[in-house]
Amino acid sequence: MHQADARVEQGSQPETEGVAASGQTLHKWALLTITVYGAFLLYYNSNLVDARYVNHHISNLIVTIPGVILLLFAYWRGYQTLKSNPSIGIKPVVFFGAIAALIAVCIPNFHSSDVFSYIDIGWLQSHYHLNPYVTTVDQIPDFHADPMLTGVWAWNPCPYGFAFAHLTRMVCEAGRGDLAFTMHLLKCINLAAFFVLAAVIYFGARQLRLPRPDLSLYLYLWSPFVLIQSLSNAHNDVLMTVFVMAGMLFVGSNLVALAIPSLVVGAQIKFLWIVAFPFVLLFVFRRFGWKALAANIVGGMLVMACLSAGYAADFSHFRFDIMRQDLSFNGKSLPALIENIGHGIEHLAYHSNNLPWFESGLFKFIAAVKVATFAGFAILCLWRFLRAVNEGKNYSMTRMISDCLLLALLAVCLVSSKFHPWYILMFFPVALWLPERSELRRLAIILSCTQLFAITYLGHSGGINFVLLTATPLILSFIRFRRNRKADTIPVHN
Question: Is 432 strand, coil or helix?
Answer without folding.
Answer: coil
